[in-house]
Amino acid sequence: MAIVTLLTDSGESDHYVAAIKAKIISVNPGIRIEDISHRIQPTDIAHAAFVLKSVFRDFPKGTVHLVGVDASGNRGDSYIAIQLEDHFFVGADNGLFGLISERPHQNLVELNTINSITTTFPERDVFAPIAAKLASGVSLTDLGKPMQVFKKMIDRQVKATKKQIAGTVVRVDNFGNLITNIPKEAFDILSKGKTYTIQFGGEKFRRIQTQYNQAEQGECFIVFNSLGVLEIGIYKGNASELLGLEYDSMVNIVFDE
Amino acid sequence: MAIVTLLTDSGESDHYVAAIKAKIISVNPGIRIEDISHRIQPTDIAHAAFVLKSVFRDFPKGTVHLVGVDASGNRGDSYIAIQLEDHFFVGADNGLFGLISERPHQNLVELNTINSITTTFPERDVFAPIAAKLASGVSLTDLGKPMQVFKKMIDRQVKATKKQIAGTVVRVDNFGNLITNIPKEAFDILSKGKTYTIQFGGEKFRRIQTQYNQAEQGECFIVFNSLGVLEIGIYKGNASELLGLEYDSMVNIVFDE
Amino acid sequence: MAIVTLLTDSGESDHYVAAIKAKIISVNPGIRIEDISHRIQPTDIAHAAFVLKSVFRDFPKGTVHLVGVDASGNRGDSYIAIQLEDHFFVGADNGLFGLISERPHQNLVELNTINSITTTFPERDVFAPIAAKLASGVSLTDLGKPMQVFKKMIDRQVKATKKQIAGTVVRVDNFGNLITNIPKEAFDILSKGKTYTIQFGGEKFRRIQTQYNQAEQGECFIVFNSLGVLEIGIYKGNASELLGLEYDSMVNIVFDE
Q: Measured between CB atoms, does B3 come within 8 Å of chain C?
């Protein structure tokens, strides 16, 4: 039986998360439920998409990911279930799922079209029973109406040329580390045979480490992290606070001639 | 085997929650444990009762709900286990359980009366083993001394007449939405054939929506929510902050002649 | 099959915790995972050690405790797995494990020595697969290279003489209660036949209660808690805030002649 993961902006001081779990358990008490996070900033689709994109492939194929972030979305947003990269996703068609993968989806249905219900709590009333049924082996095509496309937002793109890679901070994590959208692959190709300068917040650096602890205490480290992107931090410190950088701050790698 | 849910004011930075779980697992490693919340404000019985009341019926009948909120209660408070609406509750007799249901209890025992222990951590030392035994199928009457009544506090009552429904805010949730104690049932009956004005915080509204997203961004929505009570929010905003309303603020529905 | 517990400084707003769980589940989907806490202050070894020391023995023997706190530690810190008091511990050799027990370890290996990997996320890439294998019954000696000793830090010691016990606050918990390092055993021996004064923050007290609720509201209670150490709080209040005491504040028990 598959696992169901939960990713919401519900917080942990209300009954919302427990209500979603209770509904899943009511459909099938054998389903394992694992939280990804319930501390997504309310309606923050970018944050949710970053977290989901960073971890869903670590779960076994067939895992069902229930996403309740800005689930009321905008007027007219459908509720959908997607099969993508051999994983299942259940949530609102508000653009979030368009940010988590470049691959074409394998299957897509619109939910709640037959005997449709009106609810202020779709996570419990629509997503949870659907997620539970998917995790129990029900075929996705039996759970909704076929749909062709779901909403895709345009993520801020890194701009990579022979002269420089211009990226941005896409996530400030719990430690204050700054995670960018600069991929190691692009860097490896473009930096061949060249020296480089990494620039952000008025600072310039000429070295990239392989471990967080290769900087001195209180000094910057720059690594390509476990997601394969450039990450900046301050060893035993909070880079976001100390450098004054935040979501969307610019980070450039300039290649010397 | 039944599930045990946990609802406490322990927070998540200490060992308290893990100690409760470890004790349950030690009694019976097959028991499934699901958190409701550990972020109840210390000793805040009203908050805890609201959360528990809002979700316990979503779990399967026979679920055991361990509640550790103000568990030291007041001098002389007993520890009790209750069967109520086909669910089990284990905790301190401090008035919290009197706020979660209007129904008479089915069974009630006082705990820790034989070979009684003195402890500063009753959640782990008394409630956890009892909850684990209940979840394993032990009869409630075998776990304590029969008791007739448990403490019932008087919740602030909504006052409903033909002229108006006078209610209050009973919960400000993670999103800043204001959840009142005004039931849809009362509204449906009293509003028949009349127009109405909803008043709170100096504002007046004449419409109730069915979905959060039927208001414009930055504007109020008013819905009867998934709990069947009136809820006020600001679409993509924080109503509590923006309207200056909080727990116990007044919300009235005035019916026009 | 054993349980794996998780104790980290990852916070709950990122993908880190879910990535660790996903990796464990990928190795063996039958393993039960229970969180101890993910809200350890980043790199705060003392806090983590206190929480771990306070709860690990409550879990069944054979439980595997994965600890990801300051996991990058200092340059040159190994990754290790320890068998201690019939429990298993997996984490960085940064001194944390030296604070949780006085007993000699039963077994100790260094991890990641064969086909070693370089990673910025050892919790997922090294600790999680090892923890999963230990929990699945693989012998600890098959998982790494034998090692003789692991790092032990010196915890601040309580100083106990016939005239006084000089201790400190080792933890301010979620409620603002001040947990000290003064053991009940030492107090019972040294206080025989004597009166005593408990001194902290300019205050003096001559009584120790057995329950939190034996003080008046707003007044101090002093108990020997479920960990067997002296704990100070304010009934229905926050002692740390009200008394201005914090981690490392001094607490003395002076015995009268």
A: no
Closest residue on chain B to A32 (Cα): B32
Region of residue A147 (left: phi > 0; alpha: psi -120 to 50; beta: else)? beta
- B33, B42, B120: residue with CB nearest C225: B120
In this model, does residue A73 exceed pLDDT 80?
A: no
Any CB–CB contact under 8 A between C247 and chain B? no
User: Letter for the amino acid at C228?
Assistant: G
- Read off the pTM: 0.94
At position B143, the amino acid (one-letter code) is L
Mutate to test the interface with A, among B178, B213, B222, B223 (most CBs of A within 10 A): B213
C175 touches B at CB < 8 Å: yes
Q: CA–CA separation, C121 vs A254, rounded Å?
A: 27
Residue B209 per-residue DSSP state: B
C214/C219 Cα distance (integer angstroms) = 10
Note whether ipTM > 0.90 here.
Answer: yes
pLDDT (0 to 100) of residue B214:
82
A44 residue type, one letter: D
Q: What is the pLDDT of residues C146-158, one digit of tens each?
A: 999 999 887 788 9
Q: B 65-84 residues with CB below 8 A of C? A: 72-75, 77
Q: What is the pLDDT of residue B73?
A: 65
Tokens of A162: 């022979």
pLDDT digits (tens, 9 = 90+) for B47-70: 999 999 999 999 999 999 999 999
Task: Give the CA distances from residue A24 to residues A124, A141, B59, C177, in Å, rounded to whole numbers and listed in that order.
Answer: 8, 19, 9, 37
